[in-house]
Structure formats: C-alpha cells, structure tokens
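Incident log, entry 3
Record: RING-type E3 ubiquitin transferase (665 residues)
Problem: checksum mismatch between cached and fresh output.
Input:
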Amino acid sequence: MAMDVALSSPIMAASAFLPYGSLLQSLIVLANEVCLEEKASFVQARTVSTMRRRIKLLAFLFEEVHESNSPQLPPSSLVCFTELFSVVRRVKLLILSCEEGSRLWSLLQTELISNQFYQLVKEIGRVLDILPLSFLKLTDDTREQVELLHNQAKRFEFSADERELRRRDELLELMMNKKNKDLAEFFSSVGLRSLMDCDEEISKLEVEALKQAGTGGIMVVSNINNLISLVRHAKTVVFSKKEQFNLKFQHHSCSSISMDQIPDDFRCPISLDMMRDPVIVSSGHTYDRNSIAQWIDSGHHVCPKSNQRLIHVALIPNYALKSLMQQWCQENNVNLFEPTKPCSFLKRSNSRRYRSIEPIDHISASKATTDAVKMTAEFLVGKLATGSPDVQRQAAYELRLLAKTGMDSRRMIAEAGAIPFLVTLLRSGDPRIEENAVTALFNLAIFNNNKILIVAAGAIDNITHILESGKTMGARENAAATIFSLTMVDEFKISIGASPKAIPALVRLLKEGNSAGKRDAATALCNLALYKANKACIVGAGAVPLLIELLTDEKAGITDDALQALSLVLGCCEGLQEIRKSRVLVPLLVDLLRFGSPKGKECSITVLLGMCKDGGEEVGRRLLMNPRSIPSVQSLAADGSLKARRKADALLRLLNRCCFPSQPC
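Fresh output:
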C-alpha cells in the first residue's frame, strides 16, 4: 500500500477532525453498531451481510490501533480514519434504510441501492490505498485481513444481486397484473405476512411519497402510489375475510389486547410476533422456531440479533420461556398455537361472551417467570441425574444457557441441586459434556453464594482435571475462568493454591492456550498470587519466563495481566531471584514505561523498583546503561498516577545512589 500521498484528494476533504483517541473510540462504536444485526433484512440481504463482514474487519483494525496507544501515528492516518468514519456512517444509514424503510420501494430501487453499496466499497478501497498500514502496530492476522479487504475492494465490480432483480421484476409484474395467488407468495417472501405488516408498509410508502414529492418527480410519486394501491389490494385478497371481520369487530366492539400489552420477551426478534415455539440458538438468543429456521435455511450462519456466528444450528427448546408464555396465555385466554394479531378477540368464559382484557399484572408475571425457571431447572437436573449420556449432554448445555440469564436463575439452578451433578460430570469422559458442565459451573459461580456450594461439592479437583487434561481448549479456558471466579473468595485462594495440580495446570495453559486461554490463566494466577504462600508455587511451576515472553506476545494481548502477575510474584524471594535472572526484562520494562497503559506503567515501575532494591545493584547498573531509562522514569515521576509517581521517585533516588560507588544502591 502507498505510504503517503498528497492530502488534496477529494475524499480527504474534511473541515475538522476529532481528537485521535475520540475518533478511534467513535469508529469502534459505529462499526460495532453496523455489525450488530438487530433484525433480519428482507431486501438486499446478501449485500447487507457482505458489507457487515467488511465493516467487521475494519472494526478489528480500529480496535487494535486504539489499544496500541501509540503517540506517534503518522498524520495521514488521522485523515484516513476520519474519512473511514464518514464512510462507515453512510454504510450504517444505508443498511438502516434497507431494514427499516419500505420493503417494496427498496425492491424497486434494487439497482440504485446496489450501486450505493458498490460506491461505498470503492471508497473504502480508496482510503485503504493511502492508509500507512506499515506504521500501525497491528497483529499479523489483522494486517492480512485488512490487506485482503483492500485487494477485494480494488477488484470489486458492480453487480446487482440476481435474486433481488428477479423479485423486482415479479413486483413490477404484480403492479401491472395483480394475480392473487402470486401476490400471497410474493408478500410472504418480503416479510409482509399480516395486516399489521401491510399497514406499516403503507405508512412507510406514504412517508416516502412525501419525501420524494419535491425531488423524485411525478413518475416516482406515481410508482409509490401504485405500490400503496397494491398493498391495499393485498389486504383485501390475501388475508381471509374472517380475519378482516375480526379485526374490524375488535376495533369497534371490544376493548382488546394490543401488541404493547404482550411482554417483549414473548416476541420473536425476527417476526416481532408472539412466539409459538421458542427455541435457543448457539448464541444464547431465543427466536420462534419457524422464523429462525427460515433464516438459517436461507443461507445465514449468524445470529440475527447479535451477529455472532452460529457454531451449530441445533434449535434448543426454551422450556422456561414457553412455560411462562403458556401461563400468561392461559390467564389472558390467548391461543398460543395461533399467530397473535395486533388486536386479539378473546373469549373469556361461557357466562361472559366478550370481556376486555385487564392490564398485565407485572408482579404476577415476575412470579410466573420465577416459577418457570424453577420448574425448568428441576426438570433439567432430573435429566442430569438419570439420563443417558446424550440426555445429560443436552441438559448440561441447557443449564449452561439458563445460567446466563440472570442472578435469580443461577440461584434457582443451585437450589434445584444442579451443582453436585455438574461437578460429577466433569469426569464423564465425554468432551462436550465436560465443556458444558464446566461452563455451566462458571456461569453459576457469578452468584457469590454458589461459589461456596461449588467448592463444598468437591469441585476444585475436578475443575483442575479439566484445566489440566480437558479435551477441548474451550473447556480448559472455562475451567481457568471458573478458578478465577472462585478465587474472588479469599479462603478459596488458599484451598485452590494448596491443590498440587491447580497452579501447574494454569501455568501450562499460560503456555499452550490461545489468547483467551492465556488471559484466563494469567488473571487466575494474579488472584492466587495475592496469597503469599502461592507466590513461590507459581514461580516454581515456571510462570516467570512465560510471563516475560507474554510481554511481547501481541497475539495474546495480555501485557498488563502479565505485568501484574510479575509484580505480585516479585514479593517472594524465589520470584525476585527468577525475575532478576532475565536479561531481556529491563529494556522491555523501560519501553513499557514509555508506551504502556497507565496500569502497565504502574506495574512496570513496581517491578523495576523491586529488582533494584535490596541487593539489586547489578540491575541498577543495567538500568543506568540504558539511555532511555532515566528520561522514562523522570517522565513517569512527573506525569504518572500518584502510585506511579511515588515509586518512580523512589527508583530515581536508588539510581542516584548507584552513581556513587561509596554509597550502596
């Protein structure tokens, strides 16, 4: 990529720039908003999905540049990121118009919208042409992904989605010849599946007509009016006369239940209708089975709500929510097995033919939720206790998901007796059962009282077993995270540290794990090192050389955690001796004093001071030989946090004494 160019290019015209840190933070927030898919798009679905993937790659770039905290980024990068902010903002608005605007009008504008996406991709490519990538501190993976995005943008050729063009042609044909059979199928394909959907579409078309009145010309407004006529015709012929009669009767003859009265948790995020068969996908979100099945069948492999990739396509029944819905429907005489209309006509009893619905009792709803979770937890614990391995695997997974939903759920799962069974399953020998069980325990341990119950169930040895020899990296990571959570209780720092295999297993994960595993291991070791007797065990397990290596491991990204662990084990003789042996640590710490985070600078000065005190003359002399050390320490003494300034002053006094041979350092 070009290193630099003149800034007179048209795409660089910008009247003002945000401060660098604020600009990057704004880019990260904006890019994540674009990538978060809150609802399914019925038009330009493939184009929108592809554009979101491109913005996701840019989000990785923004995050890494922001986390590098480099004070010497080239000025041209500020211009590039400012322009990228403008481009990403326009991407967000265009995607929003596809998702929230009139579906039929967007379909008629297929080629225009496709061209708008094309132009935005080419603009991204032009900005990346001049982004000084080699001057940015990036991981190799991110650098390769950005270069790939750049090459794709340069080669990208305009083409409208053939499927969208066919649907546009179908719409044009329907506008000229309203075939009732084709009309029903077509409206369903664009997500217009109820009278409420049609009413919303008409409202959006009317807004679009007003918007286009001054700019679009007569033909444009005429086309929009024809679309309004088509939707009104569909309301008459696609939906049954009975439904229309009921809707009219509801508005005039009864006080009915409205969509606003249906609890939001009962609605499918895709269709916005009340769910009939709620299921959980691998991301943990709940959808109506039919809606999410259609979403997956259409080729999507991400969660519509969170945009997380679906690691599997199993649809797990949400028994807790379904039980709650059934109770609510029974109380309000709603048939759960029929689609909920905007306004439902309900029979209340034989003695009273029609009766208005009372406002929802939220206290009763809360109690119903509690009862449903409790019943589900007991049901799943029964599966853990008596089920086959397949049943246990499914039950452990459902408990894992249920334990994510809140503190009350975690409490009730424990009260149902799940913890001892989950602990036992940690030695089942089945990789998926073990991973689900340890992850469920990790989620349960967020509730403080459950920490005590988990340890009382004898979990430490079994969790250590997973940490040491778990068959999946995910299981080992979550075992380390569970140990970290348990060590939030002071007395468990002692009992876990006393386990002969726990600390060595964490150190092994520090060496073998991926970035998440190394982070979990490092944070658990930091907690354990707060207890003095554990420090020597951590050093004896070989943690110090690994922690020093992690200071320069950009992929692991746990510099501050590694520094904190080093500063803690420095408090024992074994740790101090091991740290002083390193010949590479002093220059690394000096660089971290210059470029590290505030927390990293505090830990770095703590380690340097500890190395130089009490017989650390040789380290002091090495430090003085580094031409950057004194200016870095002086800068921290002037501008650092209160704790950092105090330790920097102490180190400067020590180094000052080292300059005079007659005075001990």
